[in-house]
Automatic annotation (TrEMBL):
Family, per entry: Belongs to the DsbB family. BdbC subfamily.
Its membrane topology: Multi-pass membrane protein
HAMAP family documented for this protein: BdbC (MF_00287)
Keyword Ribosomal protein assigned: no
Keyword rRNA-binding: no
Protein name per UniProt: Disulfide formation protein
InterPro entries (UniProt xref): DiS_bond_form_DsbB/BdbC (IPR003752), Disulphide_bond_form_BdbC (IPR012187), DsbB-like_sf (IPR023380)
Compartment list: Membrane
Amino acid sequence: MQPSAIESSALSEPDDHTHISFGQRVRENLGYLAWLQAVVATLGSLYFSEIKGFPPCNLCWYQRILMYPLVLILTVGIIRRDPALRWYGLPLSIGGWLVASYHCLLTYGVISAELAPCSAGVSCLARWINWYGFITIPLLAWVAFSVITVALLFAKPAKELDHE
């Protein structure tokens, strides 16, 4: 018995559901990139304060409050392959990005020092590091929150990609 033309073509072509494009593979792994960036930023923050002895200012504390939970939230989301992963992480990463942006504008003199929220204790204008003449701790935090936010915006968990 000969298979019909439709059955014949279905037998000879590869299954489209098993083929995952490079773009899909990248989008599937962006959650891992966001998680890795959060881990590196958290460890870097702890290194600067606990090993180097740089005391965090008020804005640094707000950024820590928004960064540290990202490690746990993204870990759970990745383990569960939760399609809603980005919706748990984005509020924290966008909030951190806004605080880090404000902190960068203060340290680079774009915003007046009179608007710094650190009136007592450690100054938000202090430059504990100044690598290459422009890389400061607030800039490192801004880059970390930017990477996490962009990664989460474009991330698509494998579960969601399975249905495309």
